[in-house]
Amino acid sequence: MYGWIWRRLPGNLAVRTFAALVLTGLVVAVLWYVVFPWLEPRIPLDPATVDG
Predict the structure, then answer these.
(1) Does residue 50 carry a pLDDT above 70?
(2) Which end is more exposed in the chain, N or C (fewer Cβ atoms within 10 Å of the end residue's Cβ)?
(3) Domain assignment of residue 50, yes or no
(4) Residue 51 falls within a domain, yes or no?
(5) DSSP state of 1
(6) What are the tens digits of pLDDT across the range 9-43?
(7) What is the pTM assigned to this prediction?
(8) So what's the pLDDT on residue 44?
(9) Which stretches are transmembrane (predicted)?
(10) d(CA 35, CA 14)
(11) Contact assessment for residue 11 and residue 25, using Cβ atoms and an 8 Å cutoff
(12) Within a 10 A sphere around the Cβ of 3, how many other Cβ atoms?
């Protein structure tokens, strides 16, 4: 999959590297600000269930 994405990016090595970093940053931002906040109330995490 990563090879397919890398071959589809335009430009030389520097441009491809920059584009890959920008795309990675966008994916991380969408996960951090959209997906994880939406998912957090739906996951039953209860710290009282861990015995110490």
Answers:
(1) no
(2) C
(3) no
(4) no
(5) -
(6) 999 999 999 999 999 999 999 999 999 999 988 88
(7) 0.70
(8) 78
(9) 12-35
(10) 30
(11) no
(12) 7
C-alpha distances in Å from residue 25, one per residue of 2, 16, 33: 15, 14, 12
Is residue 9 a contact partner of residue 19, using CB atoms and an 8 Å limit?
A: yes
- Round to the nearest angstrom and report the end-to-end CA distance of the chain: 42
Query: Which H or E run contains 52?
Result: none
Tell me if 11 sits within 8 A of 19, measured CB to CB: yes
Q: 51: which DSSP letter?
A: -
The total of structural domains in the chain comes to 1
Q: Which two tokens stand for residue 3?
A: 């090879």
Cα distance between residue 35 and residue 26, in whole Å: 13
10: left (phi over 0), alpha (psi -120 to 50) or beta: beta
Specify if 28 maps to a domain. Answer: yes
